[in-house]
């Protein structure tokens, strides 16, 4: 028959150095739990008795109207609706812009764009793209 492992004096003995941290941890857990319960029972600290916040000033009655004594803006007389151009008239020429803005690249498939990009990267590695820009190269490459 074997000895009972739960019998007193049969297990390892613990000294004060091992027991103190365990007791401290249990005490801290109990203190925290009791404080949390006490804090939950306090009244809402948002409203303080005796403190009254002032209301904003009331809005003027004529808020959206023009000020008194102001001259009203003149009302333009109604004009006749513009007539559509005659069907036999030549279409107007597009207006030429005097500012130099960016011009788009030619329309190309995704595959062609990829091929031109790979060719551009190879030219940059070779050093042959030194005097060119991507936009100028892409216009020529995508038009092929």
Outline the structure in words.
This protein is an all-alpha fold and 144 residues long. The protein has a domain at 110-143. The protein has helices at 16-40, 110-126, 134-143. Residues 74-88 have a biased composition (Pro residues). Residues 1-40 form the signal peptide. Keywords: Signal. Residues 41-112 are annotated as: Disordered.
Class from helix and strand fractions: mainly alpha
Mean pLDDT: 75
Q: Spans of 5+ residues with little confidence (pLDDT < 50)?
A: none
Number of helices: 3
How many strands, what sense, and barrel or not for the largest sheet?
Answer: none
What is the helix/strand order? HHH
Helix content: 25-40%
**Cα-to-Cα separation, first versus last residue:** 98 Å
- Give the percentage of residues in beta strands: under 5%
- Overall form: flat
Number of strands: 0
Please state the CA-atom Rg, rounded to the nearest Å. 44 Å
Keywords: Signal
What's the arrangement of secondary structure elements?
Elements (H helix, E strand, L loop, with lengths): L15 H25 L69 H17 L7 H10 L1
Please summarize what this structure is.
This protein is mostly helical.
Relevant terms:
144 residues; mainly alpha; 3 helices; 36% helix; flat; signal
């Amino acid at each position: 028959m074997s000895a009972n492992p739960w019998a007193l004096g049969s297990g390892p003995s613990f000294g004060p150095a091992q027991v103190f941290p365990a007791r401290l941890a249990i005490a801290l857990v109990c203190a925290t739990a009791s404080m949390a319960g006490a804090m939950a029972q306090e009244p809402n600290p948002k409203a303080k008795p005796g403190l009254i916040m002032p209301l904003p000033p009331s809005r003027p009655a004529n808020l959206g109207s023009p000020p008194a004594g102001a001259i009203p803006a003149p009302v333009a007389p109604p004009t006749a609706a513009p007539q559509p151009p005659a069907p036999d008239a030549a279409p107007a020429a597009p207006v030429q812009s005097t500012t130099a803005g960016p011009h788009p690249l030619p329309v190309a498939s995704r595959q062609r764009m990829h091929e031109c990009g790979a060719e551009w990267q190879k030219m940059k590695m070779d050093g042959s793209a030194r005097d060119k820009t991507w936009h100028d190269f892409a216009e020529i490459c995508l038009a092929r």
